[in-house]
Amino acid sequence: MDLQLPLDYAAIERILPHRFPFLLVDRITEIEQDKRIVGIKNVSRNEHYLVNSPGHPQVLPPTILTEAVGQVGAILILAKPENRDKLIFFMGMERVRYKRPVVPGDVVEIVAKVHRLRSRMGVLRGVARVNGKVVLTGTMTFSLGVGAGAATDRAAQSPRRESAS
User: Fold this and answer.
1) What whole-number distance in Å separates Cα of residue 110 and Cα of residue 42?
2) CA-to-CA distance for 50 and 15, rounded, in angstroms?
3) 160 partner at 20 to 30 Å CA-CA among 32, 74, 88, 133?
């Protein structure tokens, strides 16, 4: 698959299995295969998951921000032609640190770098910034599994055994 940067929302939907309201990445601006990726998350006031406490500004929950970082990393892995029929599963997160709140109007730049990459497992390091200031850092371990489409194709190709009952 030939990627034309920047990747917009529609192009991202062709790579990730996520859809609205679970797709949290708005744009991919840079990609270096097997090395790094840069994505953008625009935070708007009308997002339903913003935390709104009386007397405090709305903020993006840290779990949603962590998921956005994971999705940017997943795009890097799943954009490779050999991974197109696979699903990515995050197996763990380590050293995830939230540095400051993210509020509506912020444009979050997310950078994910490959720390370790094997055929079916890997480790990504992610950093999210707003106006150049770090809002999140962390390391995520993932594994690749067979996607639903590939499992269905294999089942259709394999011969069925008739039971003797």
Assistant:
1) 11
2) 26
3) 88
- 40: amino acid identity, one letter: I
What pTM was computed for the model? 0.85
Which residue bears the tokens 């797709």? 23
The Cα 105–Cα 101 span in angstroms is 12
Rg (CA), the chain: 18
Instruction: Map tokens 């270096």 to a residue.
Output: 32
Q: Where are the domains of the chain?
A: 9-157
Produce one character per residue of 68-93: b if its CB has 16 or more CB atoms within 10 Å, e if not. bbbbbbbbbbbbeeebeebbbebeee
Q: What 3-state DSSP class applies to 39?
A: strand
Phi, psi of 111 (to 5 degrees): -115, 125
The fold of 9-157 is: Thiol Ester Dehydrase; Chain A (3.10.129)
- CA distances (Å), origin 123, targets 64, 129, 136: 20, 20, 17
Specify the higher pLDDT residue, 57 or 110.
110
